[in-house]
Amino acid sequence: MDDWQLHDVTPLHLQLYETIKIRILSGKYPPNTRLPSIRELANAVGVNPATVSKAFDRLKHESLVNRTKLGYSVSDDQVFIAQIREEEKKTKACTLVRELTALGYKPEEIMTEVSYYVGKLIHRQDLPNY
After folding, report:
1. Rounded to an integer, what distance in angstroms lies between the CA atom of residue 21 and that of residue 65?
2. Strand partners, 74
3. Tens digit of pLDDT for each residue in 90-128?
4. Burial of residue 44, with CB atoms counted within 10 A of its CB: 0-12 exposed, 13-18 middle, 19 or more buried
């Protein structure tokens, strides 16, 4: 099963929710993909099934997954998923700019730094883990 890296800072159900949401939005879990059962995922991650259930419930509430007779599957609404992905990009970009601005960086400095890291991606270089 996939690699699940959980940490202590954020509640486990929110970490699972975020990880699955990113996998859906990135296409790693394409539309109509059947997700692992609550029990399978709980065993793989090493958490209580109720934790997984809370994550799935949140994804269902946001219409990213559907509950079927066989469990949960990724929504088949590709347009909706693309819209959520676009919103996520804008939200994260705005958050980054706000946080760096709050630290006193000028727009030019922010652009230079972001351009540097985008350049690394373009040249298929790994980004550092700070």
Report:
1. 9
2. 65
3. 999 999 999 999 999 999 999 999 999 999 999 988 888
4. middle
Q: List, in order, residues 6 or more apart from 81 with CB less than 8 Å away.
A: 24, 25, 31, 64, 74, 75
Q: How many CA atoms lie within 13 A of 71 on its CB side?
A: 15
The tokens describing 82, both together, are 């693309």
Instruction: Round the average pLDDT of the chain to a whole number and report it.
Output: 93
